[in-house]
Amino acid sequence: MAVITKHKLLVIGPTEPWSVREKLCLATSVMKSGDQNWVSVSRAIKPFAEPGRPPDWFSQKHCASKYSELLETTEAPK
User: Fold this and answer.
1) What are the pLDDT digits (tens) for 21-70?
2) What are φ and ψ of residue 45, in 5° steps?
3) Packing angle between helix 38-45 and helix 20-33, nearest 10 degrees?
4) What is the pTM of this model?
5) What are the angstrom distances between the C-alpha of 4 and each of 1, 7, 8, 48, 71?
6) What band does 14 get if pLDDT is binned at 50, 70 and 90?
7) How many CB atoms lie within 10 A of CB 68?
8) What CA–CA distance (Å, rounded) separates 15 from 44?
9) Rounded Cα–Cα distance for residues 70 and 23 (Å)
10) pLDDT at 75
């Protein structure tokens, strides 16, 4: 049972919140590379990770997921 739980955590992704700096770096990178080129986005923001982040913190899948979350939670300017 513990193995299944651990696997589910890995599939879902990291649960710690992203810092404001990391979110800004993500948004800036998406603005430059587009929201279809997650390889470039992931590579570009890796140097801006907060200390102690795991190596896969900015994986392509996690970046895409976080960007989608940001779009859902951000209000559009009027």
Assistant:
1) 999 999 999 999 999 999 999 999 999 999 999 989 999 999 999 999 99
2) -100, -5
3) 140
4) 0.77
5) 5, 5, 6, 32, 31
6) low
7) 11
8) 22
9) 8
10) 85
Nearest Cα to Cα of residue 62 among 35, 45, 42: 42
In a 13 Å sphere around the CA of 49, the CA atoms on its Cβ side amount to 17
Give ∠ CA 75-47-56 in degrees, rounded to 5.
Answer: 80
Type of residue numbered 47: P
- Give the ranges where 1-78 is alpha helix by DSSP (H): 2-12, 20-33, 38-45, 60-73
As given in the structure block, the two tokens for residue 9 are 């955590």
Block residue for tokens 């994986």 = 59
Q: Are 41 and 28 in contact (CB under 8 A)?
A: no
Q: Which residue has the higher pLDDT, 72 or 12?
A: 72
